[in-house]
Specification:
With about 425 residues, the protein is α+β, with helices and mostly antiparallel strands. The chain is about 40% helix and about 20% strand. It has 17 helices and 16 strands. Helix 1 packs across helix 13. The longest helix is centred in the N-terminal third of the chain and has 20 residues. The chain binds adenosine monophosphate. The site of adenosine monophosphate has 18 residues, from strand 6, strand 10, strand 11 and helix 13.
Length: about 425
Amino acid sequence: MPTFQTVRGMRDLLDKEAQTFTYTMSNAQKVALLFGFKKVFTPHVESLELLSAKSGDEIRQRMFIFEDLGGRKVALRPEFTASIARLSTSTLKNEPKPLKLFSVGTVYRYDEPQRGRYREFWQSNFELIGSNKPEADTEIILLTNQLMQTLQLQDYVFKIGHIGIIRGILSQDGVDEKTQNAILQRMDKKEYELALKLVDSEKCRHTLQSLIDLKGDNWRGIIDQIKVLVADYEQAKVATENLLEILLLVTSSTEISLTVEPAFARGLEYYTGLIFEVYIPQLEIALGGGGRYDRLIEAFGGEATPAVGCAHGIDRIAIALQTQNANYSMSLGRKVVVIPITDSVKVDALKIAQLLRVQGVSAEFELMGRKMGKALEDADKRGLDYAVIVGERELKEETVVIKDLKKREQVTVPLSELFEKIKN
Ligand code: AMP
């Protein structure tokens, strides 16, 4: 028989890595609770029609599509937003606004696999539906900031832009929406020359090129320069004011490091306003990102409803934590193995292991039926702290032997004191 391997782009997550994922997801869950987001689970499989409604060509072309046995055209979700839009226009249609929903799980995109880019990957996703206020945009940035903080990531920076600025300029210049999408897609890939080729007007090209060249740490200065560049473009002016208002709210409510890049675009077609991504200096790939999508809900048949959201790439956060040697522990403290010397005390040894677990001690049991020497050797190799050795003679005296595997010392203690001894 050949040995099997994972399908290209799919990964097994083992032990330490799996723990990092769980740690990240539990922190995302904590942030959701802190900001009052309700958790929802939605299906991995959705109708192709729903998923391709408004994702943009980029993602549409990379979906895992298949026909189920009932002949339905379906696909694995490439993101959460479509499912949340479906929920908000159906089951949750009459819920009071804003709807604040949190999800976590795997999504699927037929990307070219490389470090930090997989075909199955994990996201934590936050959607805030029903508010067009800048405080809603602010909330999404603040909660992403809080997640990065609770994970203890260092030196992370937000890259911030506003799709309304570019769309405002293009619309005023008469560029249709389809061409706008094509331009934004190229800008997202930093193919600026190709993007500008799609623009007819010389003035418009010049304005866009100037926006592309605008970069720097001084975000206030950048905003001032954008204002000058878009002075003749009404919609773009409104968008710049909106971006300024959000940035003032964000920076006055928390310590945050950010840069403003007016020509920054994101792959998903549905954004209409603020967009952002978050990076650490050691990695070129974004750890998370999001933005405002005010026309998406109506595209799914709902009433016109403003919305803003974000997704964090858990696979990439795990790489970031590893890169920065972030220290965290999911252990319960000291680790113990319980070893019966003979079969005759197996039941008592099992009871003792159970007693420890009930008190919150990580207690393994010798499951291979090995002799004492071999069992201790194995516990030692795996870095356990103590062996609790259960023997017939000791049991008669209601005692057990605790062997400290690090100090290589052993003591006999009354059973009633076992927990205290291990704890201390
Ligand atoms: P998006 O849903 O495209 O806004 O992406 C949100 C986040 O998901 C990104 O910032 C990445 O951290 C992560 N991400 C996107 N695509 C991939 C991928 N192919 N593999 C791993 N993580 C990804």
